[in-house]
Amino acid sequence: MAKVPKASELAAGTQHKPPKTGWMDTPVDFKPGTWCYAGKPKNLEVVGLPNPREWSPADADWKLPSNWQDTLHEGLKERLRKYRSLQLFMDICVRCGACSDKCHFFIGSGDPKNMPVLRAELLRSVYRKDFTMAGKVLGKMAGARELTEDVLKEWFYYFFQCTECRRCSVFCPYGIDTAEITIIARELLNLIGCNIDWIMGPVANCYMNGNHLGIQPHAFVDEIEEVTGVRIEPTFNRKGAEILFITPSGDVFADPGTYTLMGYLMLFHEIGLDYTWSTYASEGGNFGLFTSHEMMKRLNAKMYAEAKRLGVKWILGGECGHMWRVINQYMDTMNGPADFLEEPVSPITGTKFENAKGTKMVHLVEFTADLIKNGKLKLDKSRNDHLRVTYHDSCNPSRAMGFFEEPRYVLNNVCNHFFDMPPNTIKEQTFCCGSGSGLNTDEYMEMRMRGGLPRANAVRHVHEQHGVNMLSCICAIDRAVLPPLMDYWVPGVGVTGIHELVGNALVMEGEKERTTDLRNEPLEGMEDSDNEDL
Ligand code: SF4
Ligand code: SF4
User: What are the structural domain ranges in the chain?
Assistant: First the structure.
């Protein structure tokens, strides 16, 4: 792994030195720490993707198929026909520049090719050359250029320096969504075997094993009993359960996601929910979204297939980011309609989730917000008094779902000290974690720290103003990538899922006196209690 510069060096280094040559003629410099390793041949073979081979983006020879230009030309032609939004996005940009300083990668790197307008231009210039009369006749004068190996390398480098977060689209007066352009560009790159292993590994694992990591949540039952004295009994593959619960496997894999998972299990136990997990559809995350529309559809299909096999009424989904983009924007039309499921109704409050009429899938945070609103949970907020909490709106639930108020409602009901970050960094305008869309890999750490700088700056603001020491979020990737980002830019701030805080505050039937939170940290006023585990 490349050495990551110190935070002070990186902050000083955001002053990008403009190259001497124009943007069309400046080749990419594959500097360690700013690109991801290539997809391993075995992972491509598992899902039948073309051109599996050993190669590295830093190599001069990418071992491309001999007809790679024709393949990409035909691929772009097909997609222009299929996705009318793509055709529109290629034609209507007026280069007003409103999006240019809105990308976290541009802010953190200063590299002009990370301005959304120029990122899109990397593909648009080839589109002009191949598909417009002006481009064919006038060439460079019309902003057109040939698809050469240098251009291809530029595509790879910069379309894997976009987290598909859609922040830029919020500011574009024409609604151009650069994330969609990135999605198509990555799809094209996949046609000739140019992909990254941090995406291909999870895709292959998910396809073969049902989840990215091949693990199950049994382990946490003992830990919950240790903290609360209550034994919970989750079930797996139980036919006839009312609800199927699907969450990202990141919740089972490592702290702090595991604490969020404990919160889910405690909540379900306390309200007596009739639910089951599936060991087949055991992954909410869908790295197919970062590969191609076809792969996203393939990996998503198991959710409805399992719901049908188990005979449940509807599906409840855990705290995840891109999982919800796939569910909310694509699942119903891609793999639905799920007529065999019922319109979701909370068995505890009777609330009908009209917004989930199409997908038949409800987000756990809105489910919990509804429980609280209807007075169904006994909560002791003071159990989170050792924490001063802020909230990171994960890009997908916020911009792809409009999910702004429910998380804040839950937070304000489970903790006494909640502080929002500045308005231009939250909700619709939230800044990305800098590591989404499959870029959460170690070899890419410098770019992650650069891309995460704007988010970290906003956290630093509430850390300094209000003593915030905990950053909450509802995304499994965020729970994995925000801890190193905080350690780097704002040491002293931890990361949590919302249901960890719910689990801390939840007063359970028959519980023992709580002296610690779910992390075994002493509750406020319990620092001296006789707890041999501390
Ligand atoms: S804001 Fe929209 S129209 Fe303006 S440069 Fe950016 S993508 Fe083009
Ligand atoms: S989608 Fe996000 S990462 Fe991509 S160009 Fe726009 S702001 Fe940058």
Answer: 7-199, 210-505
**Edge-to-edge, what's the strand order for the sheet holding 314-317?**
275-277, 243-246, 314-317, 361-363
Residue 163 CA to ligand 1 centre (angstroms): 18
pLDDT tens for residues 2-15? 788 888 888 765 66
Question: Do you know the residue count of the chain?
Answer: 534
Distance 166 CA to ligand 2 centre (A): 5
Q: Is the CB of 176 under 6 A from ligand 1?
A: yes
Structure tokens at 359: 């997908």
Q: For residue 492, how far is the Cα from the chain centroid? A: 24
Our answer on whether the CB atom of 118 is closer than 6 Å to any ligand 1 atom is no
Model confidence pLDDT, tens digit, residues 283-294: 788 888 889 999
* Pocket, ligand 2, Cβ cutoff 6 A: 102-103, 105, 116, 119, 162-168, 178-179, 182, 432
The set of residues, in sequence order, having a beta carbon less than 8 Å from that of 29 and lying 6+ positions away, is none
Task: Report which protein residue has its CA nearest ligand 1's atom 2.
Answer: 172
User: pTM value?
Assistant: 0.94
DSSP summary character for residue 527: T
What's the mean pLDDT in 203-231?
A: 73
- Please tell me if the CB atom of residue 175 comes closer than 6 angstroms to any atom of ligand 1: no
Using CB atoms within 10 Å of the CB of residue 15, give its burial: 0 to 12 exposed, 13 to 18 middle, 19+ buried.
exposed
